[in-house]
Amino acid sequence: MLKYYKKGMPKEPILGLVRLQDDRVEHYDGNETWNAEWAGAGKAYMDIIGMGGNWYMYDEIDLEQVEDIKRIVDERYKERALFAYKNSDPNALTP
After folding, report:
1. Strand partners, 27
2. Cα–Cα distance for residue pair 38/71, rounded to 1 Å
3. How many CB atoms lie within 10 A of CB 46?
4. Residue 25: its H or E element
5. CB 38: neighbour CB atoms within 10 A?
6. Model-level pTM?
7. Which helix (H) or strand (E) holds 37?
8. Are 7 and 57 in contact (CB under 8 A)?
9. What confidence tier does 81 reach under pLDDT thresholds 50, 70, 90?
10. Number of separate helices (H) and strands (E) present in the chain
11. Which residue among 31, 48, 67, 74 is least enclosed by CB atoms within 10 Å?
12. pLDDT for 25-69, tens place per residue?
C-alpha cells in the first residue's frame, strides 16, 4: 500500500512530495515522474519511520492532497527547469 508524505516545515512552503511502499521511498520529480534513485531516499525513509533527525518534516497526506501538492511542485519545478522538465521539450537543442 502506498503512503504519501509532504515534506516541509510547519507553516512554510512545501519542499517536496514522497511516497512510501514498504521500505521504498520515491521522490516526486514533477511531470508525473517518481524517482526511486534519488540521493535522499534512505534518509527520508529513516525520517518517515521516526528514526531520523528530521522526522517532523514529513506529514502523511491523503490522495486529494497529493494531487494539489503535485500541482504546486510541478509549477515550481517547471519555473526552475528542474528534474523532469529539464528536457521535456522534444525540440530542445540540448541533450
Report:
1. 18, 35
2. 20
3. 15
4. strand 24-30
5. 17
6. 0.79
7. none
8. yes
9. low
10. 2, 5
11. 67
12. 999 988 888 999 989 999 999 999 999 999 999 999 999 999 999
